[in-house]
Design a protein that fits this description.
Elements lengths: L1 H8 L14 E6 L2 E2 L5 E4 L8 H9 L4 H4 L6 E2 L8 E3 L4 E5 L6 E8 L8 E7 L4 E5 L3 E3 L4 E8 L2 E7 L14 H29 L1
Parallel strand pairs: 4-9
Antiparallel strand pairs: 1-2, 1-7, 3-6, 5-12, 6-12, 7-11, 8-9, 8-12, 10-11
């Protein structure tokens, strides 16, 4: 019974194996489909300056709370940094021709996608800003994500490891333990009542 309850209480939002590469399905720039050129997600990075070390830290699994403890990030979501986990490695959006596109919308594969509750970690090479944003759409059936980018950027997919939104109050205990204690107390009380009723009937 306890194992079943614990399993039901565990939020499963996405596969926890980090994917390295996703194929770009379609790419648009300024509302027009890009033709005669190929847009890819690359594992090498250009024009990121001092942020190369940051990218390597994130891809190696360093928690976002540590990475951005002294670096600014625009978090437009209701979640705190500590609730995000990396689903796909950071990769750079790049064209085979070397052309730098702007006002882009791309759709790409995320083979380990298991939930629509995903976000994008983006580094804009033009503005030199880090952001966490919601994608335009998530297609679970085809395991693809569609998102808009002001410029060709560095992007990775994040999933939420906890369903709880940001709470500024400091937690002083574990909610899971509290629930377990209540269940145990309830079961113990029912057992005592059963014993009392049994003894009362035995004396009759």
């Amino acid at each position: 019974m306890f194992l079943s309850l614990a399993f039901l209480a565990t939020p499963v939002t996405a596969a926890n194996s980090i994917q390295r590469r996703g194929r770009v399905i379609s790419a648009y720039s300024r509302g027009k489909k890009i033709t005669g050129d190929t847009i890819r997600l690359k594992n090498t990075f250009t024009g990121v300056g001092n942020n190369l070390a940051t990218i390597k830290d994130i891809n190696s699994g360093v928690p976002l709370t540590k990475v951005f403890s002294s670096k600014k990030i625009n978090n437009t979501t209701k979640y705190s940094l500590g609730q995000f986990k990396l689903l796909t490695r950071l990769q750079e959006i790049r064209s085979d021709s070397g052309k730098f596109y702007t006002d882009m919308m791309i759709t790409w594969e995320v083979n380990n996608l298991m939930s629509k509750n995903v976000y994008l970690l983006v580094y804009d090479k033009v503005t030199e800003e880090w952001s966490i944003v919601k994608p335009e759409s998530v297609d679970l059936a085809n395991k693809t994500i569609t998102a808009k980018f002001a410029h060709m950027s560095v992007v990775g997919v994040l999933y939420v490891s906890s369903n709880k939104s940001v709470n500024n109050n400091v937690k002083t205990g574990d909610d899971t333990n509290v629930v377990m204690y209540i269940l145990l107390a309830t079961i113990s009380l029912l057992a005592l009542i059963s014993v009392f009723i049994f003894r009362k009937h035995s004396k009759l």
